[in-house]
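Input (structure):
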Protein backbone atom coordinates (compact mmCIF):
# COMPACT_ATOMS: atom_id res chain seq x y z
CA UNK A 1 0.00 0.00 0.00
CA UNK A 2 2.85 2.36 0.86
CA UNK A 3 4.61 1.55 -2.42
CA UNK A 4 1.44 2.28 -4.40
CA UNK A 5 1.07 5.60 -2.60
CA UNK A 6 4.69 6.52 -3.46
CA UNK A 7 4.13 5.58 -7.11
CA UNK A 8 0.98 7.68 -7.33
CA UNK A 9 2.73 10.57 -5.61
CA UNK A 10 5.60 10.39 -8.10
CA UNK A 11 3.12 10.20 -10.98
CA UNK A 12 1.24 13.24 -9.64
CA UNK A 13 4.51 15.21 -9.78
CA UNK A 14 5.69 13.86 -13.15
CA UNK A 15 2.53 14.42 -15.20
CA UNK A 16 2.28 18.20 -14.55
CA UNK A 17 6.00 18.56 -15.33
CA UNK A 18 5.58 16.75 -18.65
CA UNK A 19 2.55 18.87 -19.52
CA UNK A 20 4.44 22.06 -18.58
CA UNK A 21 7.32 21.10 -20.90
CA UNK A 22 4.83 20.35 -23.70
CA UNK A 23 3.13 23.71 -23.15
CA UNK A 24 6.45 25.58 -23.15
CA UNK A 25 7.64 23.90 -26.35
CA UNK A 26 4.29 24.63 -28.01
CA UNK A 27 4.47 28.29 -27.01
CA UNK A 28 8.03 28.61 -28.33
CA UNK A 29 6.89 27.10 -31.63
CA UNK A 30 3.91 29.49 -31.72
CA UNK A 31 6.21 32.44 -31.02
CA UNK A 32 8.43 31.42 -33.94
CA UNK A 33 5.43 31.15 -36.29
CA UNK A 34 4.07 34.51 -35.09
CA UNK A 35 7.50 36.09 -35.58
CA UNK A 36 7.55 34.96 -39.19
CA UNK A 37 4.04 36.34 -39.66
CA UNK A 38 5.13 39.63 -38.05
CA UNK A 39 8.03 39.94 -40.49
CA UNK A 40 5.67 39.07 -43.37
CA UNK A 41 3.30 41.87 -42.28
CA UNK A 42 6.24 44.28 -42.16
CA UNK A 43 7.18 43.33 -45.72
CA UNK A 44 3.60 43.69 -46.97
CA UNK A 45 3.24 47.00 -45.15
CA UNK A 46 6.51 48.21 -46.65
CA UNK A 47 5.36 47.22 -50.13
CA UNK A 48 2.09 49.09 -49.60
CA UNK A 49 3.95 52.22 -48.56
CA UNK A 50 6.57 52.05 -51.35
CA UNK A 51 4.16 51.24 -54.19
CA UNK A 52 1.57 53.72 -52.90
CA UNK A 53 -0.91 52.24 -55.38
CA UNK A 54 -3.70 51.97 -52.90
CA UNK A 55 -5.90 54.84 -51.96
CA UNK A 56 -7.76 52.58 -49.57
CA UNK A 57 -6.58 53.63 -46.13
CA UNK A 58 -8.70 50.95 -44.50
CA UNK A 59 -6.37 48.32 -45.90
CA UNK A 60 -3.32 50.12 -44.51
CA UNK A 61 -4.91 50.55 -41.09
CA UNK A 62 -6.07 46.94 -41.06
CA UNK A 63 -2.51 45.78 -41.85
CA UNK A 64 -1.09 47.99 -39.10
CA UNK A 65 -3.53 46.55 -36.58
CA UNK A 66 -2.79 42.98 -37.67
CA UNK A 67 0.89 43.79 -37.11
CA UNK A 68 0.09 44.99 -33.59
CA UNK A 69 -1.94 41.84 -32.92
CA UNK A 70 1.05 39.67 -33.83
CA UNK A 71 3.29 41.92 -31.76
CA UNK A 72 0.99 41.71 -28.71
CA UNK A 73 0.75 37.92 -28.93
CA UNK A 74 4.53 37.62 -29.11
CA UNK A 75 4.99 40.01 -26.19
CA UNK A 76 2.40 38.03 -24.22
CA UNK A 77 4.38 34.82 -24.79
CA UNK A 78 7.58 36.59 -23.68
CA UNK A 79 5.81 37.83 -20.53
CA UNK A 80 4.58 34.29 -19.88
CA UNK A 81 8.15 33.07 -19.55
CA UNK A 82 9.37 36.15 -17.66
CA UNK A 83 6.54 36.09 -15.12
CA UNK A 84 7.08 32.48 -14.07
CA UNK A 85 4.64 30.78 -16.45
CA UNK A 86 1.73 33.17 -15.99
CA UNK A 87 -0.27 35.06 -18.64
CA UNK A 88 -1.04 38.60 -17.47
CA UNK A 89 -4.70 39.48 -17.97
CA UNK A 90 -3.88 42.97 -19.27
CA UNK A 91 -2.34 41.51 -22.44
CA UNK A 92 -5.58 39.72 -23.26
CA UNK A 93 -7.39 43.02 -22.80
CA UNK A 94 -4.90 44.81 -25.10
CA UNK A 95 -5.40 42.14 -27.74
CA UNK A 96 -9.18 42.35 -27.40
CA UNK A 97 -9.18 46.13 -27.78
CA UNK A 98 -6.87 45.98 -30.81
CA UNK A 99 -8.95 43.24 -32.44
CA UNK A 100 -12.16 45.19 -31.92
CA UNK A 101 -10.64 48.40 -33.32
CA UNK A 102 -9.51 46.43 -36.36
CA UNK A 103 -13.01 44.99 -36.75
CA UNK A 104 -14.55 48.47 -36.63
CA UNK A 105 -12.09 49.79 -39.22
CA UNK A 106 -12.54 46.87 -41.60
CA UNK A 107 -16.28 46.26 -41.18
CA UNK A 108 -18.04 49.51 -40.43
CA UNK A 109 -20.95 49.25 -42.88
CA UNK A 110 -23.61 48.40 -40.29
CA UNK A 111 -24.03 51.20 -37.72
CA UNK A 112 -25.63 48.93 -35.14
CA UNK A 113 -22.79 46.39 -35.13
CA UNK A 114 -20.25 49.23 -35.10
CA UNK A 115 -21.99 50.66 -32.04
CA UNK A 116 -21.97 47.29 -30.27
CA UNK A 117 -18.29 46.80 -31.14
CA UNK A 118 -17.56 50.23 -29.67
CA UNK A 119 -19.45 49.20 -26.52
CA UNK A 120 -17.26 46.08 -26.29
CA UNK A 121 -14.19 48.33 -26.46
CA UNK A 122 -15.66 50.52 -23.71
CA UNK A 123 -16.31 47.47 -21.50
CA UNK A 124 -12.73 46.25 -22.07
CA UNK A 125 -11.34 49.68 -21.17
CA UNK A 126 -13.49 49.86 -18.04
CA UNK A 127 -12.31 46.37 -17.09
CA UNK A 128 -8.71 47.43 -17.60
CA UNK A 129 -9.28 50.52 -15.47
CA UNK A 130 -10.85 48.47 -12.66
CA UNK A 131 -8.02 45.94 -12.90
CA UNK A 132 -5.46 48.73 -12.43
CA UNK A 133 -7.33 50.07 -9.38
CA UNK A 134 -7.03 46.79 -7.52
CA UNK A 135 -3.70 45.93 -5.92
CA UNK A 136 -1.53 43.42 -7.78
CA UNK A 137 -0.45 41.66 -4.62
CA UNK A 138 -3.27 40.12 -2.66
CA UNK A 139 -3.03 40.26 1.12
CA UNK A 140 -1.88 36.97 2.59
CA UNK A 141 -4.07 37.29 5.67
CA UNK A 142 -7.82 37.53 5.83
CA UNK A 143 -7.76 40.85 7.69
CA UNK A 144 -11.26 41.79 6.53
CA UNK A 145 -12.75 38.74 8.30
CA UNK A 146 -11.09 39.47 11.63
CA UNK A 147 -13.28 41.17 14.23
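Output (sequence):
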Amino acid sequence: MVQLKKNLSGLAITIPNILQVFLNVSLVFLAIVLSFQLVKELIVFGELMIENKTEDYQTVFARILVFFLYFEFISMIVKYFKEDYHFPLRYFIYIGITAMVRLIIVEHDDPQSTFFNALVILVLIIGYFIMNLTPRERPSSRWFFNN
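Notes: The CA atoms of residues 38 and 50 lie 18 Å apart. Residues 2-51 form the longest helix (50 residues).
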